Amino acid sequence: MLYYLTQWLLEAVQGTEWAERLSPLRVFRYITFRTAGGAITALLLSLWLGPHVINWLRRLKFGQEYQDKAEEGGDLKARLLSKRGTPTMGGILVIGVLDISALLWAQWNPLVLLTLLSVAVLCGLGFYDDYAKITRQSGGGAASHVKLIVQFSLAIFIGVYLWANPITSGLVSDIMVPFVKYPVLTGVATIGVIITVFTIVGSSNAVNLTDGLDGLAIGCTLIVSFVFLLLTYFAGNFKAASYLQIPYVAGAGELTVMCGAMIGAGLGFLWFNCHPAQVFMGDTGSLPLGGALGIIAVLIHQPFLLVIAGGVFVLEAVSVMIQTGWFKFTRIRTGTGQRIFLMAPLHHHFEKKGWYESQVVMRFYILCVLFAVVALSTLKIR
Questions:
Q1: In angstroms, rounded to a whole number, what is the distance separating the alpha carbons of residues 341 and 350?
Q2: What's the rounded Cα separation, in Å, for the pair 344 and 19?
Q3: How many angstroms separate the CA atoms of 153 and 367, rounded?
Q4: Measured between alpha carbons, how far is 37 from 103 in angstroms, rounded to an integer?
Q5: Is 339 exposed, middle or buried (0-12, 13-18, 19+ CB in 10 A)?
Q6: Residue 164 falls within a domain, yes or no?
Q7: How far apart are CA 14 and CA 92, in angstroms?
């Protein structure tokens, strides 16, 4: 919005005495400036609105009174302070601020609008799931098949839309993998749509599974968002993309502004979500944030790179799949289900081993940074 307003003003005063006075507004043409503006705006809005949103959620009694999954296995050393009653649905703050900042500072091209639309849909799904948990007081939430139907429907729509559009069809029909300069497969739209769907759905659910400790999911999301801030900027800059020999995607630079807004909103939320948390993100925030990362990865033609950059999310999701699969398999074979981890997702396993909550979070941050470095190294190791 600010970009369009400033350019309209510059055109309106062209040839008048005001042209020179308003010439500094040309800075809004630069993606780097608008990215910084989006990040700062999101951060300040989060810090300002945070206390009001938390108090509003408290008044509505949208607190976590249902049993936390981490409590099911007994007392944990890290759970020194009770989390019961802490407001949830804090994702409203993150997503609301993200959307406002992105709309203010980005050019509204199809890539940005598609991402914002998807984030809104997943936020609505997460809100429904959180509300169902609170009202039922049982932790049940929305039925798993309902969540998957919405997620898969959205992801299929995105995949088919990109493929059907001649400008973006290559994002789906050509398959790129890290460490390789050129597509490993071309003209394989069906495979591309499948990869797109599983990237978006998998990323959304992986971040959701990671959201179990104070500051863990949002902190890791911040680190991965920084990686994609750089990747989107390079992908949207023809000279940079040519130099690095990565796919150039027209308009992808505006996703840099969105990544900046995501970082600002995430930092502001982390202020209130760090241990001991004043508010939880809930599915309202984790589902859309994970989905946004997956969609952005698809839109810059790097879906597999998200597997590296979001390695912590992958480990969390895989730990749940392994635990569930092995438990069912051993129960069928022996009549008694067995576990590989003390508890899944993986962060609860380390809690059960005696790590404090803050230790788990900080060590996962370090691991996430290492994955981020490896992801960025693919830009030169090709």
A1: 9
A2: 62
A3: 33
A4: 12
A5: middle
A6: yes
A7: 42
What are 352's two structure tokens?
Answer: 């059960």
Given 3-state DSSP classes, what are the helix, strand and coil percentages for the chain, each rounded to the nearest 5? 70, 0, 30
Residues 305 and 375 sit within 8 Å (Cβ to Cβ): yes
Q: What secondary structure, in 3-state letters, does 114-130 show?
A: HHHHHHHHHHHHHHHHH
Is the pTM above the cut of 0.85?
Answer: yes
d(CA 248, CA 176): 12
Distance in angstroms (rounded) separating the CA atoms of residues 142 and 130: 8
Report if residue 86 sits inside a domain. yes
Identity (one letter) of the amino acid at 345?
A: P
Contact 125, 150 (CB under 8 A): yes
Task: Tell whether 64 is covered by a domain.
Answer: yes
Instruction: State CA 326 to chain mean position distance.
Output: 29
The Cα 77–Cα 213 span in angstroms is 13
Instruction: Report the number of distinct structural domains present in the chain.
Output: 1
In angstroms, the CA 179 to CA 166 distance is: 27
The closest alpha carbon to 148, from 198, 113, 218, 194, belongs to: 198
Question: What pLDDT digit, counting tens, does each position of 107-128 carry?
Answer: 999 999 999 999 999 999 999 9
Instruction: Show Cβ contacts of residue 122 under 8 Å, excluding neighbours closer than 6 positions.
Output: 150, 151, 154, 204, 287, 288, 291, 292
Terminal-to-terminal C-alpha distance of the chain: 38
One-letter amino acid identity for 220?
Answer: C
pLDDT in tens, 141-183: 788 889 999 999 999 999 999 999 999 999 999 999 999 888 9
What the block records as the tokens of 215 is 């500051």
What is the Cα–Cα distance from 321 to 3, expressed in whole angstroms? 45
Q: Which domain holds residue 210?
A: 2-302
In a domain, 278, yes or no: yes
pLDDT tens digits, 187-202: 999 999 999 999 999 9
Contact assessment for residue 35 and residue 252, using Cβ atoms and an 8 Å cutoff: no
The predicted-structure confidence for 291-347, as pLDDT tens digits, reads as follows 999 999 999 999 999 999 999 999 999 999 999 999 999 998 888 889 999 998 999
Distance between CA atoms of 85 and 83, rounded to whole angstroms?
A: 6
